[in-house]
Amino acid sequence: MPKVDSPRPVRLRQIQRLFGTAIFRPLTDGYQMDPVWSDGRPTADIADTLIKANDRLTSFERLEIYNRQYWFRIIDCFHDDFPGVRAILGTKRFQHLARTYLAQCPSRSFTLRDLGQFLPAFLENNPQLAGTHIAPSLDMVRLEWAHVVAFDGPSRPPVTPLEIQSTPPESLHLALQPHMSLLTVHYAVDDYLLEVRKLVRKSKGEIPVVRKRPRKLPAPVPLLVHRHDNAVYYKRLEAGEFHILSSLIQGLPLADAIAHAFEKSQDRPPEAADLTRWFENWTRLGWLCPAA
Amino acid sequence: MPANRHNNFTSLGIGIGLRIPHYDHILNKKPTCDWFEVISENYMIDAGRPLEILDQIIAQYKIVQHGVGLYLGNTDPINRDHLTRLKKLTQRTKTPYLTDHLCWGSVDGTYSHDLLPLPYTQEAAKITAQRIREIRDFLELPMCVENVSSYAEYHVSEMTEWQFLTEVVEQADCGILLDVNNIYVSAKNHNFDPYEYLANVPHDRVGQFHVAGHSKFEKYILDTHDHPVLDPVWKMLDYALQKCGPTSVLLEWDAHIPSFEEVHREAMKANKFLKRVTEAVHAQS
Known about the structure:
The complex is a heterodimer.
Chain A: H1 12-24, H2 43-50, H3 59-81, H4 83-89, H5 91-104, H6 119-125, H7 134-152, H8 161-166, E1 174-176, E2 181-187, H9 189-202, E3 216-228, E4 231-236, H10 239-249, H11 254-260, H12 272-284, E5 288-290
Helix pairs in contact in A: 1-3, 3-5, 4-5, 4-7, 6-7, 10-11
Chain B: E1 14-17, H1 23-29, E2 35-39, H2 40-43, H3 49-60, E3 62-66, H4 80-93, E4 98-101, E5 104-107, E6 110-116, H5 122-139, E7 143-146, H6 161-172, E8 175-179, H7 180-190, H8 194-200, E9 206-212, E10 215-216, E11 221-222, H9 231-244, E12 249-252, H10 260-267, H11 270-284
Parallel strand pairs in B: 1-2, 1-12, 2-3, 3-4, 4-7, 7-8, 8-9, 9-12
Antiparallel strand pairs in B: 5-6, 10-11
Helix pairs in contact in B: 5-6, 8-9, 9-11
């Protein structure tokens, strides 16, 4: 927080720091600029040092236009990126989550695309913000961030079946495409999010009212978020697929990944036919690439 | 003047801003449009559908890139990752020149995602011009800087907005993207004569015009780009074209976006003014 020692900041850097501090400050509950500065002085006095009043607006009111624009813009973006979390929490609680998160994790990137990147970790550390809906909200926030990554994240040249066949499995290190995320969900957030997105499209920009919440699954389900032909998909995996892909992600060579994938699991190791089928499917979809 | 070194000697006619709701119409109907302006930051991504669409548009239409994130008046160090991504995109689109705003937008690494006004001081002009030169040298493309609409004026300003714009572009030796709607909005908000602004900018540096709609509130005007262009703004464009000569015009429509046909029809209203000034130039020569 810059200290305002001189009556009027003169240097460009000083001016930008003071202006920035003013507009990044959270709005009041009534969506106005906070009338009290962080050191207890009236914000109007701070605004007066920086901005001229005119015949219609005070310095405070002119600065407030920017303060409100900043918050409205980033909260709008948050609504666009996390419609599923919003549907679970309801608009009021979601709005509170958005304002709390954005006050603590403001944008540090030139693109608003990255705005929600810390939300999964933030919600894990602040579960009270989701109240009794924390478990489905955590599943959903991970899915929605994975969706953002899958939408425009990088791809690498996929490994070909020939490369897999011609490299000894003991020295073959594979990875998932960087735009892909492997999740475990406890609620049917994939079906739910597809439904919510459909409602959002139908409502043409308005916030749709969603009364139901995602159903709890009988057991945790592995879910892969990926992009194919530039469309994002959520694919539920078989348990065996999940174990092997998880091992590959950890950097194990293919032979070890297959050998150790089921060590800590009660799931039955796959048959050779399953492995063949999975690898054919993964390479066809371009999921695997050589590890970096 | 119309085709000059600041717009890489292009005279593109009347364009519209490329927006998502129009993707399907453009790709399926292939409507006539002189050129599209694309917001650079929307496509500075690694992969995915936006780039697939962009490639299809590039194959069929002329494109000029317009940025909203260079923040030419920032005092933070230049974001090299941003510039590298931008350069990669310019190589993809083959944009003849680049435009971005005369504003600042982030400080100490926190981004406002807004086009914030600069104080009109010699110090700010010098810092901004230096930054424009560095960016242009890296990108190896001509640049035009756009005047922004504003709602606040600083006590420390030492000159008018048009004097500041002139100071910056002359120190940086770059072009101007003159947004006549922004001049109108700022003129109303700050009580100055928009025609004095138009008369006093260096006309030989204007490489493109922007027009857009705005919203009137009780005590100020907001640059919302969600309406048709208002008559006073068209009149200003007419005057500016007479001063600058036939120059590319771009209509921006960013919210409550109507059909492609409606946006294009609105943009084509500029043709009346552009045609008149083109004919006048031909008559003189």
